[in-house]
Specification:
Shape: globular
CATH class of the largest domain: Alpha Beta
CATH architecture of the largest domain: 2-Layer Sandwich
Helix content: 25-40%
CATH topology of the largest domain: BirA Bifunctional Protein, domain 2
Mean pLDDT: 86
């Protein structure tokens, strides 16, 4: 742990309490000059640390800056050894972890960012990632599994995220097949899973699982193109005390507990319970928005269907109006709830 991280962790664990430079230096066995440099670096990165003559340094209670040291400490307390890094800004956390891989990184780790300049979602969509309002992170993993099993990490991630935001916020979180987390009828999270496989061995070399969670509504609201579908975990107020770190810890705890048993699918019951399209009528569409199933030779409608359930491969089990049933893959289509009164 760097001097900067040690200072931040001490202040994190005693929010609202003043420590003199001498006290910090003694507790951490570092020089006072080292303390001063660390505090200046943390302030530059956006941490709300106040320096008061004759009192010392204090991390304000209301701050919600991400802390690798705090997250790593809480995970260790739960027996989850995971290397944690926080960056001020990246183009995307998935892209940044790919660079780590190129540079030789072989550990399982998580990278979090205060902001993304080019956040990415599924099917080439962007993910709006302004500074200070979201939780943007990616996991670098090395599962003993093949490419087919790795696709299930996406659904695992959705369950872990839904449980985390529900626990911290106290409000219910649901999942829209296949991997979008929703609260109050709006999408608050998106997930992107990428990886590399060995063709000779037929096994994964690594997987990167990225997730973005809208924690707060950005100042001025979401951009016009997503305003009707995007929501936030904490609606109607600005950053709260340490909430992003709390959600990160809960998400990573849930994720790693499920991941320990991977590729076993011990999260599927929880996924089905939270998937709100089950029992609903949906419109089946292609990534371009066109009907996903054309009428058959007899003219039967295959654009709308009733959702019967989700199988163990996370395919959507649907029944069309003519009684025909089918299992749909998320790689081919997506679904939209049919409007009431259609």
């Amino acid at each position: 742990m760097t001097i900067r991280e040690q200072v931040l962790l001490l202040l994190e664990n005693h929010r609202g309490e003043f420590f003199s430079g001498q006290e910090i230096a003694q507790q951490l066995s570092i020089s006072r000059a080292g303390v001063w440099k660390a505090v200046k670096a943390l302030q530059k990165d956006g941490y709300d640390i106040e320096a008061v003559n004759n009192r010392g340094y204090v991390l304000q209670k209301a701050t919600d800056a991400l802390s690798a040291a705090f997250i790593e400490q809480k995970l260790k307390e739960r027996n989850i050894p995971l290397y944690v890094r926080v960056e001020k800004m990246v183009d995307s956390t998935n892209n940044e972890l790919k660079r780590y891989v190129v540079d030789g990184e072989r550990r399982d780790m998580v990278l979090l960012a205060q902001q993304q300049s080019a956040g990415r979602g599924r099917r080439g969509h962007s993910f709006y990632s302004p500074e200070g309002t979201g939780l943007y992170l990616s996991l670098l993993l090395h599962p003993d599994a093949g490419p087919k099993e790795a696709t299930m990490l996406t659904t695992l991630t959705a369950v872990a995220a839904a449980k985390a935001v529900e626990k911290v916020s106290g409000e219910p979180a649901m999942i829209k097949w296949v991997n979008d987390v929703w609260m109050r009828g709006l999408k608050i999270s998106g997930i992107l899973t990428e990886g590399s496989a060995s063709l000779e061995e037929g096994k994964l070399e690594y997987v990167i699982v990225g997730i973005g969670i809208n924690m707060y509504e950005p100042e001025g609201g979401f951009p016009e193109e997503i305003r009707n579908i995007a929501g936030a975990v904490f609606q109607g107020h600005g950053p709260g005390e340490n909430l992003r770190n709390q959600v990160a810890v809960e998400f990573l705890t849930n994720f790693m507990e499920y991941y320990k048993a991977f590729p076993a699918r011990n999260y599927l019951d929880e996924y089905r319970k939270r998937c709100f399209v089950i029992g609903k009528r949906v419109r089946i569409v292609t990534p371009e928005g066109a009907p996903g199933r054309q009428a058959d030779a007899g003219g039967a409608d295959r654009e709308y269907a009733s959702v019967l359930g989700i199988d163990d491969e996370c395919h959507l089990h649907v029944r069309y109006d003519d009684g025909t049933e089918e299992y749909l893959s998320s790689g081919e289509i997506s679904v939209k709830l049919q409007p009431q009164g259609y």
